[in-house]
């Protein structure tokens, strides 16, 4: 877990002012900086089209930034890949949203979990012993090894995907919608398991999710993206308690909350997220923002601090209202 002085330790992965432009005109990422510290659990939030997938691909070395830098333990990612591509692939793994589809349909689980050992040229016997231990640790039944992916439940398929990462002793796990499509009770079990594994193996998680209850439950820091930019970053507790960006507030207002006393007034955003080919002037959110003023369409807001560990890209952050009140 991130502690007060963790920021003194170099991040395991750092994006600095990263932009990704496709075909010279689609600005998928624009000046994004993100530091992932070892042992942290960071949430990444935003609608489809906000740049989350491009950020994950860039962070994993699956796409090159147009500008800016990506480093791994202080080393440029390109250099790390050139020096030890397989080692980096072992260390950083992605759990895809559709866990069943991400597993080869023609392979039994036994083959699926042993395959990474082969790819990474690791000793099979040691790996098999580790698989046996992890199988139990992940709560998978012994007969799961003989099943094909379509015979697994959604929760079991995710556990197999996690097992494939842990058998390689991966340290950083990027999880895309880890609980999508699961029943609420299975979601809870999986999140508890992920938290236990995080503590046990000192894992670092980047959790990408539309489900804000997942973000709230599991992450310690959250990053909100809109149209290729980070619009707010804060500790997850601060983000949920006092969102500073109107977009964050709108997202939180649609989050289902059981306790009626804790429900927020719903903020309806009109229109779709604009095209990254034709970006709005000034603040990119001004075409949908309930607080937009004339300045917003003209002047680009910069990311600025509004409290300890909380920064926002807005001329009129909601936290200003609290100071004025
Ligand atoms: S800068 Fe203006 S349009 Fe943009 S989020 Fe803030 S208030 Fe809304």
TrEMBL record:
Belongs to the ABC transporter superfamily. Gene3D superfamilies: P-loop containing nucleotide triphosphate hydrolases (3.40.50.300). InterPro entries: AAA+_ATPase, ABC_transp_ATP-bind, ABC_transporter-like_ATP-bd, ABC_transporter-like_CS, Oligopep_ABC_C, P-loop_NTPase. It is a peripheral membrane protein. Keywords: ATP-binding, Nucleotide-binding, Transport. This is Oligopeptide/dipeptide ABC transporter ATP-binding protein. Coiled coil: none annotated. One of its GO terms (molecular function) is ATP binding. The keyword Transport applies. Residues 13-252 form the ABC transporter domain. It comes from Bosea vestrisii. It is found in: Cell inner membrane. PANTHER family: D,D-DIPEPTIDE TRANSPORT ATP-BINDING PROTEIN DDPF-RELATED (PTHR43776:SF7), TRANSPORT ATP-BINDING PROTEIN (PTHR43776).
């Amino acid at each position: 877990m991130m502690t007060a002085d963790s920021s003194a330790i170099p991040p395991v992965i750092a994006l600095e002012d990263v932009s990704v432009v496709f075909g010279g005109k689609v600005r998928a990422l624009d000046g994004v900086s993100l530091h992932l510290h070892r042992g942290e659990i960071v949430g990444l939030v935003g609608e489809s089209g906000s740049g989350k997938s491009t950020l994950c691909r860039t962070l994993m070395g699956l796409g090159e930034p147009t500008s800016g830098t990506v480093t791994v333990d202080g080393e440029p990612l390109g250099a790390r890949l050139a020096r030890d591509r397989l080692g980096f692939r072992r260390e950083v793994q992605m759990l895809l949203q559709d866990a069943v589809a991400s597993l080869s349909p023609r392979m039994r689980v036994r083959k699926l979990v042993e395959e990474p050992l082969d790819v990474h040229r690791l000793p099979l016997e040691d790996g098999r012993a580790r698989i046996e231990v992890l199988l139990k640790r992940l709560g998978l039944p012994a007969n799961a090894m003989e099943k094909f992916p379509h015979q697994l439940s959604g929760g079991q398929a995710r556990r197999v995907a996690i097992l494939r990462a842990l058998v390689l002793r991966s340290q950083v796990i990027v999880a895309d919608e880890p609980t999508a499509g699961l029943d609420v009770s299975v979601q809870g079990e999986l999140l508890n398991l992920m938290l236990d594994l995080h503590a046990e193996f000192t894992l670092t998680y980047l959790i990408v999710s539309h489900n804000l209850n997942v973000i709230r439950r599991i992450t310690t820091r959250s990053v909100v993206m809109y149209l290729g930019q980070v619009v707010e970053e804060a500790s997850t507790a601060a983000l949920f308690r006092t969102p500073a960006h109107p977009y964050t507030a709108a997202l939180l207002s649609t989050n289902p909350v059981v306790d009626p006393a804790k429900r927020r007034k719903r903020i309806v955003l009109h229109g779709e997220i604009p095209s990254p080919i034709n970006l709005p002037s000034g603040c990119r959110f001004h075409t949908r923002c309930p607080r937009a003023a004339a300045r917003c369409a003209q002047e680009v807001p910069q990311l600025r601090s509004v409290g300890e560990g909380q920064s926002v890209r807005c001329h009129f952050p909601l936290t200003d209202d609290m100071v004025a009140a």
